[in-house]
Amino acid sequence: MKTFTFCCVFLAFAVFCQASSSFDRELVVKNKERSVQVENVLKKLLRAYEDEDARTFLDYVSEDRFRQDYLTFTDALYNDFRTYEIYRIDYVVNRVVPDNMKQTMEVKWEKRYETLDDAQQLSDEGLSQFVFDEINGEYLLIELAGNDLFGASLPEWTDETPNIPGQELSSNPSSGSSNPSSGKSDLIIGSVVEGESAGYATVTIQVRNIGIAVSQPTTMDVDIDMNLSSFSVNIGALPAGGSFTYTCTADQSASNACPDSNGWGVSVVVEEVNVDPNSLIDELSESNNKYTQW
C-alpha cells in the first residue's frame, strides 16, 4: 500500500513537472513573439516620427491607457515637427522586460536633426524606456521614461518624463569648432519612394549630405525585393547640405532604365539601400548610411 501511494505521488509530481516545464517553454515563446511585436510597433513610431506624420504616429499610442498626460505629449510631438527637421534615428534594443501582457522596451538611440529657427544641425544620443500594452490584439504605447526621444522641444513634457538609470543625454552640434568631428561630411538616405509610371515600376532614392564638408564621390548599393535584383549607383561629390536624387524605371526602353530590372512587376519593394557601403568616406557618423525596409 505504501509502495502504491509513493508511486502515485511520484507520478503526480512527474506530471506536474512536465506540465510546468511545458508552460515555461510556452511562456518563453510567447514573450519572444511579443518582443518582436513591440519592436515592430517601435519601428512604425520611428518611421512616422522621421516622416513628421503625427497622425500615423498617434495611431500607435493609446489615448485611453496613456499613463502620462496625453494632451501634453501630443502638443510636444507637434512642437517637435514645428521646431526640428528630423533626419534619421538609429537605435539598439537593450532589453525587453515582460510584465503579463505589458512589455517594457529599453532602447539606446541616436537622433540627427536640424533646428528650423537657426539651421543648427544636432545629434542627440540617449536611453529611453517605452511601455507597450496589448489592446484589442495590438500593442500600443502607454508610457515613456528616460531621455526624450519624442517631444524634447516642449519643457512641459520633458518635466513630466521620469528618469531612468544611465540616461545621461549627449547632444553634439554637427557644425562649429566645438565639435571634434567638425570638417566632415555625413551621407544619409533622405528618402526612398517606390512608384509606378505607364505600367512600369519606378524607384526614386535621395541621398543627402547633412555634414559640414563636401563629400567625396562614392557609390550606393540597392537591393530590390528579397534579392530579386541588386545594383550599384555612382554618386558624385556633394556639397554640405546638398543632395543627389536617383530615379529609374523598369521600362527597358527608357534612358533611365533600372539596371537588372528584367522580371520586375508593376511594383517592387526597395529592401535595402546602403550609401558608401565600403566606408571610403570619413564621416561624422558611420551608423546612418543604411536604409532597410523591414
Primary descriptors:
5-stranded antiparallel sheet; 294 residues; alpha+beta; 4 helices; 4-stranded antiparallel sheet; 24% helix
Can you describe this structure?
It is a single chain. Helices cover 24% and strands 37% of the residues. It is globular and about 55 Å long. It is an alpha+beta fold and 294 residues long. It has helices at residues 2-50, 54-58, 70-83, 155-158; strands at residues 84-99, 102-115, 121-135, 138-146, 170-173, 187-197, 200-209, 218-224, 229-235, 243-249, 270-275, 290-292. The strands form three sheets. Strands 1, 2, 3, 4 and 5 form a five-stranded antiparallel β-sheet that branches. Strands 9-8-11-12 form a four-stranded antiparallel β-sheet, with no helix packed on it. A hairpin with a 4-residue loop joins strand 8 (218-224) and strand 9 (229-235). The model is unreliable at 22-29 and 175-182 (pLDDT under 50). The chain has four helices and twelve strands.
What's the end-to-end separation, in Å?
A: 64 Å
Quaternary organisation: single chain
Number of DSSP strands?
A: 12
Instruction: Estimate the helix proportion, in percent.
Output: 10-25%
Arithmetic mean pLDDT: 84
Largest sheet report: 5 strands, antiparallel
Count of helical stretches: 4
The H/E string reads HHHEEEEHEEEEEEEE
Rg over C-alpha atoms, rounded to the nearest angstrom: 24 Å
